[in-house]
Amino acid sequence: MTDPLPEVTVVNIDYWATRSIELAQLLATCTPEGGPKAIPDPSGRPVDPEKIAVVVSPTDWAAYPRELHEVLAGVAAAGGKGPGLAAGAIAPLNERLTLTVDEAATLLGISRAFAYEAVNRGEIPSIRIGRRILVPRVALARMLGESGTSGG
Question: What Å distances lie between residue 32 and 39, 57, 65, CA to CA?
């Protein structure tokens, strides 16, 4: 039986949103065998329960500091918008059902601007949730004629 993937609680994510490289280095030390279970805000501010995120599979995120920054900035901006709303859980890119337009552009090998143009023209399948534009992985794979498996 394999150990479950660790989860790490990141405290005061607005602090970490601007320090994603440093946070990625800390996340790299989180393995099923050990490492921190919580990463505090070293500035000494008190814990704000609406600015906490649980990072699932932290070692996967450690390799993507830019994407980590984007997600943390988005979660930090959305935190506290509803009653009892904490910042939330952050799943690794390979486990999410959707991609950002930037992530889809990278996977497709096109520029960010071209990807947004293609979304607006309906050439890249997308959904809107509030102001966010997301690209469903399944729809993208179907568009490319893939069976949903990676490689090849």
Answer: 16, 9, 21
Bridge partner residues of 8 (DSSP)? 55
Is the pTM higher than 0.70? The answer reads: no
Interaxial angle between packed helices 101-108 and 112-121, expressed in degrees from 0 to 180 and rounded to the nearest 10: 110
In this predicted model, what pLDDT tens digit does every residue of 76-131 receive, in sequence order? 666 544 433 344 556 656 667 888 888 888 888 899 899 999 999 999 999 887 77
- Express each pLDDT in 23-70 by its tens digit: 989 888 887 677 678 888 888 888 877 777 778 778 878 888 888 887
Q: What is the CB neighbour count within 10 angstroms for residue 56? A: 16
Domains (ranges, CATH) in the chain? 7-94 (no CATH), 97-144 (1.10.10.10)
d(C-alpha 144, C-alpha 83), whole Å? 41
| Distances from the Cα of 112 to the Cα of 94, 98, 123, angstroms | 20, 16, 14
